[in-house]
Amino acid sequence: MEYRLTFPTGEFARLCGVNKRTLHYYDEQGIFSPDHVGKNGYRYYSVRQFYPFIMIRLLRQMGLDLAEIKDYMSHRSPARLEKLLAGQEEWLDAEIRKLQYMKKIVRNQRHTLNMAQHVRCDEVEVETWPKTNLIYSRPVREFMKREEQDRVERIIMEHLRYTMEHELTTGSSFGAMVAREDFLTGRESLLLRFFTVTTKPLRGVPRDLCAVRPAGQYLVTYFRGDYMKTGPAYKRLCSYLQEHPEWQAGEYSYEESIIEELSAADMQEYITRVAIPLQPRISAGPDPAAWES
User: Fold this and answer.
1) pLDDT at residue number 290
2) Structure pTM?
C-alpha cells in the first residue's frame, strides 16, 4: 500500500492553519523551504516537516524575530536548540509575570467599578478597613499654599510614572491626603501629598515614598461631582465628629477616586471617597487634686 507522504502548498498550509502566502514568504526568506519541487513546478511539503513548521510558528509567536529563526534554521543543532529554548523560556516567564500583573490591574479595576454601583453618596458611615500599602508622592502642601500649580502637576506625573515603571500600580485607588489641621479648619484644598494604593509588597521602594495605611475604623463618605470640590464631604465628616465626641480624627484624611476620567465623560458623574481614620478620644480622667480634698 502506497502512503501519501507529501502535500502541495495549499493543503499543507491548510493543515498548519496558515495561508499559502506565509509558506511562500518563508521559502523566499530561506527560513522554511518545501521538501521538494515537482516536475510540474509545484512545491511539496512532507509529513516530517509539519512539527518543525509548527515549532517555528510558536517561536515566532513567542517574540523571536524572523532573522533569529533564519539564523537558527541555517545552523541548527541540538546544542543551539537548547540555547534557543532556554532563552525563550526566560522570555515566557517574563511575559507570564507581565500578564499576571495586567490581570491584577483588570481585576482591581472591576472591583472598584462594582463597588461604585453600591455606594450611597452624601451619607456618613463608619467602616472597618484592613491594612493597606501606599506609595507616596513627594509633599505638595507648600506648593499648593503658594498656588504653584505647575510644580504640583509635575509631582503628580513623577509619582504616576514611578508607580507605572516599577509595576506598583495595581488598578487600585489613586488619591490625595489632607492633614488633620487643614481639613478640620476648612482648608481641605491644601493637599498634603498624593498616593497610590498597591497590593504589592513595598520591598525596594524608597522609605520616604512607602507607607502603610493602618487597619482600623474609618469615617467614610462618598460624593458625586468634581473631585477638586470636596468641601461638602468634609463638612459632613466634621459634623459627625462634633456629634460623636468619643471619637477624634486621625492624622490624615484620604481622598480616593472611585469613578473618574477613565470611566466617566461627565465630571458630575465622578465619585470620590473621603475617609478619616477614627481614634478613641482619651478621657482626661478625674482631677488628681480632688483626691486630696
Assistant:
1) 44
2) 0.75
Question: CA 101, CA 64: separation in Å to the nearest integer?
Answer: 22
What's the pLDDT at 223?
A: 92
3-state class (DSSP) for residue 134? strand
Extract the residue ranges of the chain whose pLDDT is less than 70: 1-4, 283-293
**DSSP-derived 3-state class of residue 185:** coil
Cite the beta strand spans of 17-79 per DSSP E.
Answer: 36-37, 43-46
Per DSSP (E only), the strands in 47-130 are 124-129
Choose among 213, 222, 263: nearest CA to 109: 263
In 3D space, the residue among 251, 84, 286, 87 whose CA is nearest the CA of residue 180 turns out to be: 251
% of residues, the chain, pLDDT over 70: 95
Name which of 74, 59, 83 is nearest 29 in CA terms.
74
Distance CA 261, CA 105 (A): 17
Q: Using CA atoms, how far apart are residues 221 and 289, in angstroms rounded to an integer? A: 43
What kind and span of H or E run contains 255?
strand 252-259
Q: Give the per-residue pLDDT at 283.
A: 61
